[in-house]
Amino acid sequence: MDSFLKPLKASAGKKGKSKVSDSTMYERVVDDEKPYLVDGPDHNPRLQQEDMALKRRIRFLKLISRFLAFLISVAVFGMMGNTAFSYYSTSEQKKGTDNLSAWPDNTKTWPTLMMLGVSLMSLVSNAVVMLSYCCGHSSANKTDSVSSFFSAADMVVHAICWGISAGLFKQQSALNGVKNDIWSWTCSTAADERQALYADVVNFEFLCKTNGLSWYIAVANTVSHILSFVIFVLAIKRLKSKQKANATRAAAAGGVHIPFGSYNH
């Protein structure tokens, strides 16, 4: 009982309301390792069950979200890397009586390099979080907050980067009817006509399909960030349930106010 009253007395002795900073609030949302509800004179079984059930859902969705984001970034990085390699390894070659190149004049490579860069950024961030699972769930939570520059910012930045890159990647393909970017060129009839000359070094049909798939995956990545947003909302919901539990403790202790987070197990 004394251990329970200590935080109450300490809280009662403080003047004014404690103000929780945004960074502290974020840490409480992300770190769901320790339940606030324990057996005691103010124990509420229903709130305890709701809190634990919500925590399990949050952990499961976090794992699924991180794993999907990791797979998406690996897939896009692999396909864009292969496309870039195919281009740069053959861009200087000339074949045939007309001395034709495998690629159009003034090939636009930046859409491909942009997708490659975004996928690399996402790959590194997600890889760090996935590897941290080897050190336990708590380590993964902490690494996630550090590597992502806070969860909310991570969702916004990744959504913007993937959205813009997917949009520009699609928009630049056949811009104004000119197929001089790598994706649109590999799907063009002109590339089909030159395929026989370069059959031993590049497969335009394969690159056409993989670039198209990369675009669809980039668009689908939006779903991953929606899932992340849902997880964040659930974490906020759990935070509110902890605040409700604190209100229950305060009532059981005779109305003494307990600032959220001052009574931690």
Describe the protein:
- This protein has 265 residues and is an all-alpha fold.
- It has one domain.
- 68% of the residues lie in helices and 2% in strands.
- It contains 9 helices and 2 strands, in the order αααββαααααα.
- It has helices at 2-12, 22-30, 45-88, 110-132, 137-147, 151-171, 182-186, 189-194, 204-252, and strands spanning 94-95, 100-101.
- Strands 1-2 form a two-stranded antiparallel ribbon.
- Helix 3 runs antiparallel to helix 4 and helix 4 packs antiparallel against helix 6 (151-171).
Please give a quick description of this structure.
Keywords: Membrane, Transmembrane, Transmembrane helix. With 265 residues, this protein is mainly α. The protein contains nine helices and two strands, in the order αααββαααααα.
Structural class, from secondary structure content?
A: mainly alpha
Strand coverage percent: under 5%
Q: Please report the total strand number as a whole number.
A: 2
The stretches of 5 or more residues where confidence is low (pLDDT under 50) are 1-42, 256-265
Cα separation of the termini: 14 Å
Number of helices: 9
Categorize the overall geometry: elongated
Characterize the main sheet: 2 strands, antiparallel
Q: Give the count of structural domains.
A: 1
Taking strands numbered 1, 2, ... along the chain, how are they ordered across the largest sheet? 1-2
Determine the mean pLDDT: 74
